[in-house]
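Consider the tokenized backbone below.
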């Protein structure tokens, strides 16, 4: 099947260009092409690579910790309307039985999703610091003693597997070495680690940091911890929750200036309440309140977000971040982090036609998943 996209400003890795694009058999066949294929007019839109969310706990009332494959598919369908074409099912610390049931649902959804592709699984914990627990439940936190400990973190066949961990927990640096040996994507988060421990973890294979500045020891001029370390390391990438709540917009500008678009990925960290509006929601065994797009649990801690990747892109675009940089942060950097950049994450000939067209107001006009169109439902 062939289709020609016309009229859009196309965001390529090195900048925007007004060009047509030929898609054949679900992949980008040519840019600035002429063809007799059926055409889709995307005039007055900007065409970006589809967004990839590596950290999301749920949406539209579905919590991944309780979801069947049908529930995960509901999330996938919603995410596609928000320009997301791939995502990692992100688990909070839970029981071994809970982990096993979610992993089974992920494996099934990877093969049957009609919306955004389920790319794999992201364990946020359980090897994290209870002093930086955020909204995570500490009764499920663990320390590491042997490779057999990882048997309790099941992963479906052919799934990307990512973990957020704190290297200062018992056995933490050895854990990084074992995770690296097994091919995990390792991210440092929910941490108060000292510089020497962070250096050791990085040398062992941890080169990314989860929701940077959130759930980390705060920056202090006499006690440089994870934040100072992450800012100083050119070989460490970070991800951000760009909702204007987890990080003040001024801090987003600061992080863009220091780390640059090439080192930043955007995440939603969305919970089941995303897409549902204000109200009280039973999530993770407690009541989480959403008011004016801010989440809070009973103790008053922020408990994830209710944004989509589209919201994050639009907020940063309002701060004068270019679509070229946003394509890196929302698509190509996450794809590279997950080891998928050979196949998706940027608009290049030969890659999957996972694309999103945004209108002049930053709203989704069309999402393409492997060349298959999902119109904006509005």
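A designed sequence for it:
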């Amino acid at each position: 099947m062939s289709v020609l996209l016309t009229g859009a400003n196309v965001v390529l890795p090195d900048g925007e260009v007004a060009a047509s694009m030929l898609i054949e058999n679900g992949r980008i066949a040519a840019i600035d092409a002429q063809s007799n294929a059926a055409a889709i007019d995307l005039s007055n839109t900007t065409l970006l690579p589809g967004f990839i969310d590596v950290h999301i706990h749920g949406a539209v009332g579905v919590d991944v910790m309780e979801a069947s494959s049908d529930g995960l598919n509901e999330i996938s369908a919603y995410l596609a309307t928000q320009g997301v074409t791939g995502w990692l099912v992100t688990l909070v610390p839970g029981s071994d039985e809970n982990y096993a049931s979610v992993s089974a649902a992920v494996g099934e959804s990877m093969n049957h999703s009609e919306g955004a592709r389920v790319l794999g699984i992201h364990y946020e914990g359980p090897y994290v610091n209870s002093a930086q627990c955020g909204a995570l439940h500490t009764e499920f936190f663990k320390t590491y003693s042997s490779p057999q400990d990882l048997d309790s973190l099941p992963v479906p066949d052919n799934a990307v597997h990512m973990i957020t961990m704190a290297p200062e927990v018992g056995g933490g640096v050895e854990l990084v070495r074992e995770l690296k040996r097994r091919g995990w994507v390792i991210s440092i988060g929910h941490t108060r680690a000292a510089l020497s421990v962070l250096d050791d973890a990085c040398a062992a294979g941890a080169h990314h940091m989860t929701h940077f500045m959130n759930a980390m020891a705060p920056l202090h001029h006499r006690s440089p911890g994870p934040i100072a370390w992450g800012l100083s390391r050119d070989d460490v990438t970070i991800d951000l929750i760009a909702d204007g709540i987890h990080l003040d917009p001024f801090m987003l500008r600061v992080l863009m200036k220091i780390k640059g678009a090439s080192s930043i990925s955007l995440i939603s960290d969305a919970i089941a309440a995303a897409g549902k509006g204000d109200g009280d929601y039973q999530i993770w065994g407690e009541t989480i309140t959403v008011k004016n797009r801010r989440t809070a649990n009973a103790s008053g801690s922020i408990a994830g977000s209710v944004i989509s990747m589209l919201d994050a892109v639009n907020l940063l675009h309002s701060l004068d971040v270019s679509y070229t940089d946003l394509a890196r942060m929302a698509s190509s950097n996450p794809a590279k982090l997950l080891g998928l950049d050979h196949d998706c994450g940027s608009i290049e000939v030969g890659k999957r036609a996972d694309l999103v067209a945004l209108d002049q107001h930053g709203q989704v006009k069309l999402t393409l998943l492997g060349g298959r169109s999902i119109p904006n439902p509005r």
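The longest strand covers residues 84-91.
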